[in-house]
Design a protein that fits this description.
By secondary structure, this protein is an alpha/beta fold. The chain has 18 helices and 16 strands.
Amino acid sequence: MSTTERLTGDVKDLALAERGKRKIEWANQQMPVLQLIRKRFIKEQPLEGLRLSACLHVTSETANLAITLRDGGADVVVCGSNPLSTQDEVAASLAKDYGIPTYAIKGEDNATYYSHIAAALDHKPHMTMDDGADLVTTLLTKRTDLLPGVIGGTEETTTGVIRLRAMAKDGTLKFPVIAVNDAMTKHFFDNRYGTGQSTIDGILRATNLLLAGLKLVVSGYGWCGRGVAMRAKGLGADVIVTEVDPTRALEATMDGFRVMPMREAAKLGDVFVTVTGNKGVLTGEHFQLMKDGAVLANSGHFNVEIDLPALEKLSTAKREARPLVEEFQLKDGRKIFVLGEGRLVNLATAEGHPASVMDMSFANQALSAEYMAHHHKEMKAQVYSVPEHLDKQIARLKLESMGVQIDKLTTEQEHYLASWQEGT
């Protein structure tokens, strides 16, 4: 590998950097909380001397996080966390304009994807930053020689946190990880409003469908599913929800949505969105029941929610109907369309979450990295929540940036809430 390759990483084309820099600067204007953290990091250098490998969706918002970490003293390397989520112009600018080696190319094959993760681990990180836990999984299974130098990590997604908790339960996890996804300022807003808007954006960009009047099936009514259902309803879609959790199914019902098993919804839906974090949500059984022209999209982290091998077996032909829209022709003549190869539709066919909502998510990432740097010696090899005081600090800063003021408890009210003597 040449010196230039070592310095820049592996990106599609460095000539794209100028356009990428403009995107990064545009996003930065809408990320006031992260801007404030960056200013403090420049003064205090809380991450000085730490090597940090970040496996994240390489977008303009992520770039601003990487720059903040770099300006806080960290030696940062970035790789993509999904083969279709990279914005090539942003990757080029990170490498060329900001001096952050970046290993990410939109549309990279599986071998290249994992070679990029390997390159990020060659950085010998003290700290990991993950979006789906592929970096940590590779570290724990194939690069155990690096474990003595790792002090901790952070994880961005629901899917990644599920994987990490499973690792902690069976003793595989060897260092502490902060579950950024579990912060209230992350999942209440990023998952609900960010995923809701960007998923619908991805579907519309890919298909140019009019959602009004269509039956849209949302599988999974967690925070992401709530957001998708809310936004689809707002555009006039007839929203149907499928769930396995009785409490969430009850909530969806009381929110005004029809709730039913997928085998029933499969007969009705025009558009399907899986957002469960699980596998095999749409299977061969469901494909056989679907209408001609059904559109399938996934907004869960991995491309396992839609059983594409089963769809392939049921099909006699496949072609590209539109960019990132695959048409599967079934043996009986029906056609089913899959968006973005079944990968994260909000990033595969759109630009991901708006910068203003990622502002809070990445503020959590930056502050969690700082917290880990200062407190890792007190922490065990398990998954931790973001400390509540950091979560509330981010919420306060976001409100201030929006010009919103709130009340404060009086001394008498604080005393009342902390006591038990005063009753009826």
